[in-house]
Amino acid sequence: xxxxxxxxxxxxxxxxxxxxxxxxxxxxxxxxxxxxxxxxxxxxxxxxxxxxxxxxxxxxxxxxxxxxxxxxxxxxxxxxxxxxxxxxxxxxxxxxxxxxxxxxxxxxxxxxxxxxxxxxxxxxxxxxxxxxxxxxxxxxxxxxxxxxxxxxxxxxxxxxxxxxxxxxxxxxxxxxxxxxxxxxxxxxxxxxxxxxxxxxxxxxxxxxxxxxxxxxxxxxxxxxxxxxxxxxxxxxxxxxxxxxxxxxxxxxxxx
Length: 255
Prior knowledge:
transcription regulation, alpha+beta, Immunoglobulin-like, four-stranded antiparallel β-sheet
């Protein structure tokens, strides 16, 4: 039992997830039945496994993530009743209606065996269709948006566990994630589609693939290089300013 709480040094293991939302336009009849008739959309924000279920029209969700995620807390806009929604069993998602877009805070808490701290993600709720130009504006009329189909906005991410405890590592290895398909079988997600791609404006249910996984990894690596470069430039700038400050202080002392 003692060995279970020993960390496996030098080892990293990750689990692919997606987080984001799907939104559809409410029909006039659906709007009439709501307490707030000004609400124009129904939407679902979720944290799911990256792989999608075969034959199921939903983004991701092939795997049950509760083997390593204990709960997910979604912080909605303060205008919603009970804006902090905690989901402690799968599916880790919240469905609501509304009319405006806003940022949602997503806090993921892992099972106790992990010994890991909770992580916080942020997602901007997307209600309005992306256009072929890649610009969400202008917002189309509701009847036009309804014909365009659901709006999807999902982000791929990998949760990495470094030096995991032995018992947590065993749990993870006993639940390998469903592999992503090598090639797309459905429309590409809107947020990663090429601005000139007409396919991005046709709606449908997107699916993440190994190709997109690599593209996302390359994008993150490029962003990391940019941050490191900016950090080095700022360090040089700061060192130059410090030398200038010392020179001025010396001049004042000699005056």
